[in-house]
Amino acid sequence: MISNTPTLGAAPSARLADCPYKGLQSYDEGDEEYYFGRDGDRDLVIANLMASRLTILYGPSGVGKSSLLRAGVAGLMRSMPRTAFSYLAVGNAVVVYFASWRQRPLEALGEALRAAIPGGPSRPGYTPPDGPMSVELLRDVTENLDADVYFILDQFEEEALYADPESAEEFASELGRILGAQNLRANLLIAVREDALAKLDRLEGHVPALFENKLRLEHLDEHAARAAIEQPLVRFNDGRPEDERITIEPALVDELLVQLRTGRLSVSDAGQGSRDMEAVTIETPFLQLVMTRLWAEEQARGSHVLRLSTLRELGNAERIVRTHLDTVLAALTDTQRSVAASIFRYLVTPSGMKIAHTAEDLAEYAGMTDERDIVPVLEELSSGRERILRPVEPSMDRPSSPRYEIFHDVLGPAVLDWRRRFVADVARAESERELQSRKHDEEVRHRETRRRLRRTRLVAAALVVLLVGTVVVGVLAKRNGDEAQRNADAARSSALLSQSRELLASRPAVALARAREAYELTGEPAAAAAVRVAYDADKERLVVRAGTGSAYVARFSPDGKSFVTGSSDGRVKLFDTATGRLIRQFPTAKGGIYRAQFSPDGSMLEISTGVPDATVYDVETGRSLLVIDDHQYLVTAAWGVMDGDQVLFTGGYGHEARSWSPKTGRLLLSYKAGGSDPASVAVSGDSTKVALASTDTLSVLDSRSGKLLKKTQFDGDLDSLAFVGSKSDRLAVWIRPPDEFWGLAFWDWNTETSIAERSDVSRTPSAIALSPNRQYLASVFDKEVHIFNAGTGELEQRLRAPDLLYAVDFSPDGSYVVTGGYGGQVAVWRWGSSEPAPVATMLGHGGTIEDVSFSPARPDLLVSAADDGTVRLWQATRDSTVAKVTYWMQGADLSPDGRTIAAVSDQGVLNVWHRSSGQGDEPEWLSSDTTQVVYWRVRWLPDATGVLVSNNWAWAPQLRELSADDMSEPFDENDRVTFGLAVSTSGKLVAMGDGNNRVVLWNVASRHIERRLSGAGQKDTMIDVVFRPRSDLVLGASTDGTVRMWNASKSGDPVRVFGSPGTIPLSNMAVSADGKWLATVSVDYEVRVYRIDDGQLVQTLHGPSSVIGDVTFSPDASRVAVAAGDGRVYVWDRDTGEARGSMQRHSGAVNSVEFTPDGTQLITASDDGTAAVYDCTPCMEMANLIPKVAARLDARAKGVAAPFDESSSRPIART
């Protein structure tokens, strides 16, 4: 428990006299003079504590409750004289701060109350009675001192953790007595973590109005956080000589308020409904940690200024936290660090996401027999001043088992990095110990040999023995040396694989290098799989530095052959897309570059800076053609074409809008009718009209004559705008009414006199991205991108990201958008589906993404700029979509001749796509009933003349013959609903399972049911069926855990049963093309491979931790692939059972998977609404893959563009 001695007039702590920040430590009463940002919270808590008998203060872990109560509430209430604090009516008061719950609480509170009484009581000679806290003790104190008693019970969640049942019940009972006592001058405040708030329910039996007065403490808002950064410096400098004062750069404060936002850590619901605006808040403890580190660094350098450049040099907030982590973990014992490394693996996913687990679960995962082995480590890391973990609310099914999670998301990558290094160090140390042991054994054997040689008197024999011994020792030494090298290589390979897996979620390019190195050491299958996965995930082709500062701009030229970069230090560079060669560096500007745009023909480049000015350069020569420097604020500009000439339209504060001929440097026209100070300029698609947005006026003018065509007034602010629609008769514009948020609105300027109502709101306006045909537009709304129909103004889709977004761009065909923002991820989205999610994520940037764009010439190339100072060129996987629907695509099947793909959606829409032409037939609706959740299957007839379809609500299959105009004659209906779908090799029979655990066989020619083959137990379901190729055998997979195989030509018992009845239910199965192998999938995600001829189980493959929608064999049966609910396809080697890797081409669950006849490609259908065909990277042989990997890595080592995968740019037509 902290000291309860009043602190009036006490000097600040010695530590804060040296550094005005606290790191992760809580503030105490001695730190009151340096505690800022919580004045309003402090006064609110004091007012409630004094006005209410009981107040509950709660908030998330790490929000700063203890600091507020110690340095804010308790310190002020004890130290402020009555007159100075009279507005809160503080009189004689005894303030008891209590946070020590490991002992019996009533006895401890009694001692705390007596210790809190000021040294000069109001009645001379008064000594409070001994004993535990009680109503009687409180009455004695309050009456004798004529004082009010205020209890601040902090960290109350620990009371339930440490108190035994008897003392806990005594405390609850006495608490009820105190709060129920009449005229007792005692008020209580209970401070508890938000995740433990529900645990107070046990007090309600004694305290009926327990939750009547609750206060929630939020994280610091931006204003408060700014005070917490700046005001401690003001206090520190107070009274110090000028040469000892410390200042801080305003830019550093602004950057910290971005990097430490709590909003970055929140998890948003995936719905598309409206949402309330959330205030931006700051992660309090890490603000203090970063400030403490910056302070120490500047002091070490002898600097008197806290600088943004120092933050950059220290690696920004994330790197500072990582350094903190190393320091904390270094304080643990070797055994504790080993335990920490074991449990960290399960508290952070490879992608850096936090997971909460109980101590019992962590012990089980880590292979420890007793959870008590890890509890001390968990408590050590989740308590005290420098926390790495924090306890969180137990799960509902285990309310008495607290869970633990990483304290802060920003610690996730640091934890993974520390664990990787720790595991590598342990492996290296173990290898070294083993080598030393072997060396010692050899030396012992050698000495023994020499002793035996000295004992012999026969020189010849001695020579022989010596010779033999020498040979033996040499052979053993060679053998042991080889084994030691193999062990060292294995340890090194294991460490590299660990690094590769952890880097895969943040830096796939580096993960690929680690995996290749691991494979070269051992050649093991696990290393080969890591190479394949990393090669597929690595989309990075080039990294260049825009300058010495942050990279703000990255834009392709119109022909895509080059791209331009702009940096905060004023540097502008032009690079060759194909090679990465620096073509030209333009003259360094005076201010940071915030825009660079090519002219429509690519011959000129306009650059705008924050000075403010705008300059146009000749791209070929680098010569300056035009400089515009007569504005007072940022220059806004847009290109157009008039009479075949490139024209630049400009605006900005301090001047009216103008049009220029940059090649001649001539001013063409001033648009005086549009007013002065236009904040934004837009040009219509045909360049005949120009739109201007000023403070309160939106105008449209004729670009040639300057004639005003239409104007509307708006009470508020206007910002980015754009002409939309094919006729440019509509404007999209960001607007902000007084005292409200920004929103995107539309103005049909040709017909309407006023701007339409806003869309959803955002804190800041954003640039407007137009699809190439101008039919759609996209703009950033905080953590979302909203896509609108330009013709109607209707919102088409929201794309929701986990972090704040800053940039968006359309692909050349308009079907994809790319986004970037806080968090450093570049995401590619296929918009238009019912559940949009990124189809690809580009990882590698170490800071906020400031700009992203697609290449106009190659839809698979993108470029991004980030505040880590780099610009990166990416190659996305080619658009492999062959069919697209609005909702879920549930099945796809390749015709036996390999020429045509049929795919069916959950809405019953059939798509047929021809591979040779890349064209699809008109989609056909098979069913109009969308009231049920339907799961469709599709299978080709062996002669490819038609397809069979069915679903889980059907009683019979349907046949769609391609030569017919409609569905063919219906099949007889079964007496139960059906599942699965299969066609015999001959094409004469079609099979389905049903709800009575039967396989139902239809004759395709007659459409009649031929027979039903029954499995044991009609309460189960025959969930899937398949024919064994070139035979009369049919197999049915049941929810009773078995596969039964019958002779389809006759009724009777199964000829073989695979698996055991009553085991885990099955969901899917497949038979290899040669008929030798059977693969089954159970609902526990296990894949089992059987040899059909003898029923022997030969492999058990552990599938992904998500629903498996389908399983298939490669044509030669050497590979097994499954379609998974996490959007990936996983591939194994059938003979060895080794995982070959996985790949992702969908943003939703994959429902079906099939190999093409040559085994090099996969055909899949997904919940993202697409069916796709793409190369099977996990199927590649290492002999073919390693040269490609080497070429990519070699190019990076040389600083040039890595070779493009030309298969990625093959055009694929879509229906």
From TrEMBL:
<feature type="repeat" description="WD">
    <location>
        <begin position="544"/>
        <end position="585"/>
    </location>
</feature>
<protein>
    <submittedName>
        <fullName>WD40 repeat protein</fullName>
    </submittedName>
</protein>
<feature type="repeat" description="WD">
    <location>
        <begin position="1015"/>
        <end position="1047"/>
    </location>
</feature>
<dbReference type="InterPro" id="IPR018391">
    <property type="entry name" value="PQQ_b-propeller_rpt"/>
</dbReference>
<keyword id="KW-0812">Transmembrane</keyword>
<feature type="repeat" description="WD">
    <location>
        <begin position="805"/>
        <end position="829"/>
    </location>
</feature>
<dbReference type="Pfam" id="PF20703">
    <property type="entry name" value="nSTAND1"/>
</dbReference>
<feature type="repeat" description="WD">
    <location>
        <begin position="842"/>
        <end position="884"/>
    </location>
</feature>
<dbReference type="InterPro" id="IPR049052">
    <property type="entry name" value="nSTAND1"/>
</dbReference>
<feature type="repeat" description="WD">
    <location>
        <begin position="1101"/>
        <end position="1142"/>
    </location>
</feature>
<dbReference type="InterPro" id="IPR015943">
    <property type="entry name" value="WD40/YVTN_repeat-like_dom_sf"/>
</dbReference>
<keyword id="KW-0472">Membrane</keyword>
<dbReference type="Pfam" id="PF00400">
    <property type="entry name" value="WD40"/>
</dbReference>
<keyword id="KW-1133">Transmembrane helix</keyword>
<feature type="transmembrane region" description="Helical">
    <location>
        <begin position="458"/>
        <end position="477"/>
    </location>
</feature>
<feature type="domain" description="Novel STAND NTPase 1">
    <location>
        <begin position="20"/>
        <end position="414"/>
    </location>
</feature>
<dbReference type="InterPro" id="IPR027417">
    <property type="entry name" value="P-loop_NTPase"/>
</dbReference>
<feature type="transmembrane region" description="Helical">
    <location>
        <begin position="84"/>
        <end position="101"/>
    </location>
</feature>
<dbReference type="InterPro" id="IPR011047">
    <property type="entry name" value="Quinoprotein_ADH-like_sf"/>
</dbReference>
<keyword id="KW-0853">WD repeat</keyword>
<feature type="repeat" description="WD">
    <location>
        <begin position="1143"/>
        <end position="1175"/>
    </location>
</feature>
<dbReference type="InterPro" id="IPR001680">
    <property type="entry name" value="WD40_rpt"/>
</dbReference>
